[in-house]
Amino acid sequence: MLNRTSPLQPLLELMQTRLDDAARRLGALIASETEGQRKLEMLQSYRDEYQQRFLQAAASGIGPDAWRNYSAFLAKIDEAIAAQRGLVEQSRQLTLQGQQVWINHRNKVKALDTLTQRQRSAALRAEARQEQRLSDEHAARRFPGKADD
Q1: How many beta carbons lie within 10 A of that of residue 88, not counting itself?
Q2: 38-42: long-range contacts (C-beta < 8 A, 24 or more apart)?
Q3: Alpha helices in the chain (DSSP H)
Q4: What angle do the packed helices 9-60 and 64-142 form, to 10 degrees?
Q5: Sign of the C-alpha dihedral, residues 106, 107, 110, 115?
């Protein structure tokens, strides 16, 4: 009887493990990118809110010190927004790289799985041919001379 385990099976399992690891890393990268984007949106929202307070205070009349304080704080928020945008872009690039790694691993697993399936099919065909030969030989021994009629 045929051994149904392919010699490629350990390699296929290793590649599947690597694919699973790449999927987990990609999930973490996506979560990090999402969190960075959420922080950026929060900073932008806070800046818009603070800008509105500044405009309301300016419309009511504020002194030069308050004006400077509002302006300085808005500049700091703008710096934080610019830094967060940089982090989001960096995170986006890492996510794209992680997606490519995952795709590469997935393609390798698919190719190896296809090769394993072909190997398995060829082995099954060979086994069926062997069984047919044995059956034919057995029938020929049971009924000698029948084929010569």
Answers
A1: 20
A2: 39/84, 40/81, 40/84, 40/85, 40/88
A3: 9-60, 64-142
A4: 160
A5: negative
Q: For every one of its 149 residues, what pLDDT tens digit does the chain have, with 9 covering 90 and above?
A: 445 677 888 998 999 999 999 999 999 999 999 999 999 999 999 999 999 999 999 999 999 999 999 999 999 999 999 999 999 999 999 999 999 999 999 999 999 999 988 988 888 899 999 999 999 888 888 877 655 54
CA distance 111 to 72: 59
All residues at 6 or more sequence positions from 126 whose CB lies less than 8 Å from its CB, including other chains: 2
Backbone angles phi, psi at 10, to 5 degrees: -60, -40
